[in-house]
Amino acid sequence: MTKTLTASAPGSIMITGEHAVVYGAPAIVCAIEQRIRIRVSTRADREIHIESALAAHHTDLATLADHPQLRFLIAALRQNPPASGLDIAIDSDIDPTLGLGSSAAVTAAITALLYRLRGQNPDLLALHRAAYRTILTVQQRGSGADLAASLAGGIIAYQNRPFTVITPLPAPPSGLSLRYAGYKTPTAEVLARIAASATVDPEYYRDLYDRMGASSARSIAAAERGDWADFYHELNQYQEHMTALGVCDHTQAEHLAAARPQAHAVKISGSGLGDCILALADQPPPQHQAVVIAKTGVRFI
């Protein structure tokens, strides 16, 4: 008898803590109401049929052949193999060229579905552990922060060392909006560039990461006590650290300067060298698109 399940998971944006979170510093991440939906139906055989806007792919449980557009999904199937073949259909509101945590959202949704197919209902931290293993098998490094937001929903404080902590935070009174640079440098490439620079002057980068982590921690504390003026101040301070890290290019610097007069805080969201800047403002600055906070994380439909 065929069993069909559907789950959705939201995309996400970084509020603060970029880069430093990889080394154990705290971060703030926000789930956004652009979602991935995955429907799985069991099959009587051992074949895996995947259909999405990015690719169509047929394989089987014995081989689980890779596909360059479906690496996280295939890795999740390898980590948590189903008992039978599956038909898998993926639908997305998230523009993959913008990032917005699309890979984490896919991983969150398929991991939850594979557990549900086995009749299991793990808690948030157990789901995160399983899905984070999948992400690390694909890209070797990463903090798991975007994954935590896709699983939990809302705005969260996240830290992965010495152990994983996911804590809900209140939303700021201002709106959130994004402006896309028109291009995106892959996160792995950005991290590799910084790692190469850090070999030349390791003390500078250790000190900078320490200051970034301290700023992110102060942002979390400000949000917890509802001190939004201090919260905005720390986000602006964090942008100065991102510039010192070398991930704010000319285009982003122009976009930041254009938004600053209309915003309480404005900074790069993500790894930098392209992609998006984030504004916290009463009205979206020119050429910014408002984003809606997703109140729920991964859910079954």
TrEMBL record:
GO terms for molecular function: ATP binding; mevalonate kinase activity. One of its GO terms (biological process) is isopentenyl diphosphate biosynthetic process, mevalonate pathway. Gene3D superfamilies: 3.30.230.10, GHMP kinase, C-terminal domain (3.30.70.890). Residues 220-285 form the GHMP kinase C-terminal domain. Residues 76-154 form the GHMP kinase N-terminal domain. Keywords: ATP-binding, Cytoplasm, Kinase, Lipid biosynthesis, Lipid metabolism, Magnesium, Nucleotide-binding, Transferase. This is Putative mevalonate kinase.
